[in-house]
Amino acid sequence: KFNTDLQDPSIWERYAVEVKNHFEALDLETQHVESGKKMKICLVESAEKTIERVKRCKRKPWISDEVLLLAEKKAKLRKKRHVSEELYEEYKRLKREVQRKCRRDKEEWIAEQCKELEEAHQKGNTWKLFQKLRSLSKKPRMNQSSIKDANGLVLTETQDTKEYLINLFKKLVGKQVTEALTLDKEELEPEPIIREVQNVIVQLKCRKAPGVDEIPAELLKASGEFGVSMFHQLCCRIWKSVQWPEEWFLKGGDSTDCNNYRTISLISHASKVLLTIIVNCLKNKIVWELPESQAGSQAGRGTRDMLVNLQLLIEKILDVNSEGIVIFIDYTKAFDSASHPQLFSVLITMGFPKHLVALLQSMYSKQQACVCWNNERSDWFPIEKRVRQGCIASPGPFNIYSEQIVREAEVEQTGVVIFATQMDSDVAETQQKLDRVADASARRCIQINAKNPKDMLIAKAQREIVIRARQEWIEQVESFRYPSSQKTNNGDCTKEINSRIAMAKAKTQELDPIWKDFHISKRTKIYLLKSTVWSVLLYGVESWILKVVHERRIRSTEMSWLRGILRVSRLQKIKNEVIRKQLGQEITLLQKIQERRLQRFGHISRMDPERIPHMAIHTKVQGMKNRGRPRIHWIDTVKNDIQQKGLKMNKAVKLVQDRKFGRILLTSGLASIQETTYRL
């Protein structure tokens, strides 16, 4: 690949001049297929003349040439080591010397990497900083050497393995006949303007793997106004003809169980320009069609909302001594099973512009894939089923596809429906709804995975419930990780908190060379601690209900990390306040959790009353409360946080309607709000 991580602007200027020269001699008045090839040749040849390609480095970057020469001598002597005692002693000496110098080279390499990491942080180069961080903490990756076939037999020969994988994936993306859409003049959408193409090229993410055309996003951005003009002409030709260049077609490549494999897509960056324009045209219609309960790939809705919603629902059900049944549904290779004819039929039925659907259909109709095994590629074969994984145009249409399944299942809104999760209180009614969802999914060529679905009974008095999916009994669980957060049937957050602390500690151990190195400043270590370790622990904290024992453990864990940065033992009996002062740490981890919780409260308070998070807080569940002290609820922890800021609940709700005052409330409290109001 090309070395696009260049700091010399003169190289990019020479590249832009080469693109201009090629563009002036380019004839784009040919067919769109030839235009795509000419555009690729223009960019690649311009890059070949001005930009070097990246040279592959050694497997172990710290091994010096001196060590390699010694290793060769040791390897030659190894065959003769039993000839005489002198040769055996010489072999052992060389072996010790190779090991010693390898350790020395590795220590020097780590020190050099840490210095570069520190320099990157001082210059604000976050990409290089985390790249060095990954190189220092990367786990060894084991290459898969064998797999099992359908009968459980291990395949060791490369050719047998490739043939089996080809047959497997051909079956997965089985051939289906898709009729091309015919367009009338009245159904044509307006062509994209040059400003749209320019904005999309500017927004392309850098340092991403290129597709089979080997054109990275950096080359597109550096092509200048002539490159933008070339892309605009090509996009307009594709828009009119509804035919994509072959260079832009999807090329998908793929433990021993093949069912655990997933197809991945290396998509051409050039095709992302037109795909982004198509997605922007479809966006408003997709948002209109999707319900409030669909949070996947939707702006303003996310997993944190779903976690808070589920926590609030569990609390309300238990508070009135009621019952609720939660079904966690999992589809078998949902993206790979989506039927192309049915997908495009659903889009047309829901009223999406026929021209845009025809563009997507044309792109999918000629896509191909191959199997990559031990750096060897198989022959290319066509794909007539599946939604492209990794494509920016996939989430929206697939959400529409899944929404059509829910509509056909006719799941009434008697309970609370969340995507991939259904809550109800009656076993028979829940079974009927699940059967309707399974039947509707099967009609759309998607099957429910009978092994992965779980059901969870939310009730104080637990009992066994029997629910089946595809005639298979669904396992009843007390807790479930949804999504990436442990939720229990009693609303307790202890399991999730312990799990998050353990995951954060594991991340800390991965970065042990960083904490021990004296070439990295304390300031950089604190930055890495917050960006890599704290981020793991803080996922989903908005829905936590912290007890005193939880706060103690979180505080203890945080201090152990800070002491590790200073290389200070607890036996030295240095106070926590002194440790924080030395590191300049004023905000604690518990204060950060409180800030995240109040942010979520302010976000929910500003929502429309018809939004699910807002309804989950204010909706009451029918039933009688138990005698005795009530449980601590999520809203109780929020009230406690607000009281610590010197406010009452009704006053805080009014203040957070303004984002500015809400932000001040989170950081400083009532005194700062009054001071800001006085200044205004």
TrEMBL record:
Keywords: Coiled coil. Residues 77-108 form a coiled coil. PANTHER family: REVERSE TRANSCRIPTASE DOMAIN-CONTAINING PROTEIN (PTHR47027), RIBONUCLEASE H (PTHR47027:SF8). This is Reverse transcriptase domain-containing protein. It comes from the Eukaryota. InterPro entries: DNA/RNA_pol_sf (IPR043502), RT_dom (IPR000477). Pfam families: RVT_1 (PF00078). The keyword Coiled coil applies. The keyword Magnesium does not apply. It comes from Latimeria chalumnae (Coelacanth). Residues 258-412 form the Reverse transcriptase domain.
